[in-house]
Model the fold of this input.
Amino acid sequence: MKEKTALKSILGISIAGLLFSGYLSFSEFIMGICPLGGGCGNLLGLPVCIYGFVMFLAIFVVSILGLMKSKK
Done:
């Protein structure tokens, strides 16, 4: 698999992860409910979906930077 193709795949997965964890984070903070039915887990006082959002955001930024580098 070529580097550019791999980065595009990672970018797509990170966008999907951002959308999913963003939806969960929005529901938890703004609406005050857990859309998955059960109780949402907390870690250090924050819902775990926030940590997922931050990690997917980091993956998104790194993949964008990698794609920009491969164009040069």
